[in-house]
Design a protein that fits this description.
Layout lengths: L1 E16 L3 E15 L10 H15 L4 E4 L6 E5 L4 E7 L5 E7 L3 E4 L6 H13 L6 E9 L7 E6 L13 E11 L2 E2 L1 H10 L1 E7 L3 E2 L16 E8 L2 E8 L3 E4 L5 H15 L5 E6 L5 E5 L1
Parallel strand pairs: 1-3, 3-7, 9-12, 12-16
Antiparallel strand pairs: 1-2, 2-8, 4-5, 5-6, 6-15, 9-10, 10-11, 10-17, 13-14, 14-15, 17-18
């Protein structure tokens, strides 16, 4: 007998990619449990499945930076005294991304790359130890939202958030709707999709100098780099990445602030027109603004 739950949850995270750098993602999770019926004539109560499996996924993947543990260029230094982890990653183009964060900010995925297959294998191993005895097998289906209009991948951190959104490198795969005088403008939507493809969105007040960095190693000199850091309730967070991968704004990077940022630029471009912006944060949620 099999029990299935579609759309169990959405994992919002970022991962390090040899080709693309740091990629924000949103993956939908479906689950299938195979097993015998228990004393309640169930494989497991739906409420327990949703609650327990979602909690495990949230704890091990959601709002983390996924790191390919077997990539040749990866360097990891664990500070056992402070429980901080220094991660330095070099992409195929030679560009460096480095973070210095609490251990909980990362998930180390076995393999040279982070893929749906490797993440699914990682989650199955985690979840398998928490399943009831009557469950023989667990199958996970990881998938992206089907989007037929322009979308972008962005990474950020929200230092004022009291939950896991404060982690400096988590992200989203997000669509963008821009309406000019009530009609969708695919050209403007595509503009933002191109501008924010695999982008890191930071706040000006969080930028630090190379001398203020706590991470090990020097700043690369092959191209301009920028560093950002802040202290949140979970600890100290720091990131270094190529300047070309950054969009630095004067506000926080909440979806409300990003919507305002996009709206302001669109209004400058279309001053005599009505503008409406719907910016998504992952799947099925976001903020909107219009004049």
């Amino acid at each position: 007998m099999q029990l299935f739950v579609n759309d169990l949850t959405v994992m919002d995270f970022s991962y390090l990619c040899p080709e693309r750098g740091m990629v924000g993602e949103s993956w939908i999770v479906d689950v299938v449990l195979t097993g015998d019926l228990n004393d309640e004539s169930m494989i497991q109560d739906f409420g327990k499945v949703k609650k327990n499996l979602k909690r495990l996924i949230d704890d091990y993947v959601d709002h983390k930076l996924l790191v390919p543990a077997d990539h040749a260029t990866l360097a990891i230094v664990h500070d056992t005294d402070s429980e901080m982890v220094d991660v330095r990653f070099t992409g195929n183009d030679g560009r460096v991304i480095q973070l210095y964060c609490p251990a909980e900010a990362y998930a180390f995925i076995y393999g040279e790359t982070v893929t749906m297959e490797s993440v699914g294998r990682y989650l199955r191993e985690v979840i398998a130890t928490h399943l009831p005895e009557n469950v023989d097998n667990l199958a996970l289906n990881l998938r992206t939202e089907h989007i037929t209009t322009p979308f972008y991948h962005y990474t950020h951190g929200l230092k004022k958030h009291d939950g896991n959104c404060q982690r400096i490198a988590h992200g989203h795969r997000s669509k963008i709707d821009i309406l000019i005088d009530g009609a969708h403008s695919e050209a403007r939507e595509q503009y933002w999709a191109n501008r924010w493809q695999d982008i890191y969105i930071a706040s000006t007040e969080d930028e630090i100098t190379p001398q203020q960095r706590r991470a090990q190693g020097n700043v690369p000199t092959d191209q301009p780099y920028r560093s950002f850091a802040y202290v949140a309730s979970q600890g100290y967070f720091e990131i270094l990445l190529p300047a070309s991968c950054c969009e630095v704004i004067t506000t926080d990077s909440t979806v409300e602030c990003l919507t305002q940022f996009i709206f302001n630029e669109e209004k400058q471009t279309h001053q005599s027109h009505h503008v409406k912006v719907l910016a998504y944060e992952g799947v099925g949620k976001g903020a909107m603004m219009c004049d």
